[in-house]
């Protein structure tokens, strides 16, 4: 089973992590990689460097960042290959202990059935 986890930090955007926080996160990523379940992970640059594209009735609207609502800010993501939703929840709890306060949305990815 593959799951996408989307991290939404509680702290204000634009505050880069300290060297200690980076080292601690690096250790966590190494552990998850060695466990063989981490497929990809990245942090996001500030929303001021991004945009949102919306389509309504065939017309596109582009909104440049920054995005002001903290609950809308995505700090990063990880893609996991695990045996169950419970397993990815446990790894996510461990991630939050390292990353700090915030919220992670977990979404199972569609798998095409093998023929």
Describe it:
By secondary structure, the protein is of the alpha+beta class. The chain has one domain (2-108): Alpha-Beta Plaits, CATH 3.30.70. α1 (19-34) packs antiparallel against α2. The mean pLDDT is 92. The radius of gyration is 16 Å and the shape is flat. The chain has helices spanning 19-34, 85-99, and strands at residues 2-9, 38-43, 51-56, 59-64, 76-81, 102-108.
Summarize the SSE layout with pairings:
Layout: E1 2-9, H1 19-34, E2 38-43, E3 51-56, E4 59-64, E5 76-81, H2 85-99, E6 102-108
Antiparallel strand pairs: 1-5, 1-6, 2-5, 3-4
Give a quick summary of the entry.
The chain is α+β, with helices and mostly antiparallel strands. Helix content is 27%, strand content 34%. The chain contains 2 helices and 6 strands; from the N terminus they run βαββββαβ.
């Amino acid at each position: 089973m593959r799951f996408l986890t989307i991290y939404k930090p509680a702290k204000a955007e634009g505050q880069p992590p300290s060297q200690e926080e980076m080292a601690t996160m690096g250790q966590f990523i190494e552990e998850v990689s060695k466990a063989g379940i981490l497929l990809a992970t990245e942090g996001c640059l500030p929303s001021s460097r991004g945009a949102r594209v919306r389509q309504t009735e065939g017309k596109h609207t582009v909104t440049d960042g920054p995005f002001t609502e903290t609950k809308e800010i995505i700090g990063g993501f990880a893609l996991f290959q695990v045996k169950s939703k419970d397993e990815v929840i446990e790894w996510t709890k461990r991630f939050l202990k390292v990353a700090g306060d915030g919220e992670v949305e977990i979404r199972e990815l569609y798998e095409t059935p093998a023929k």
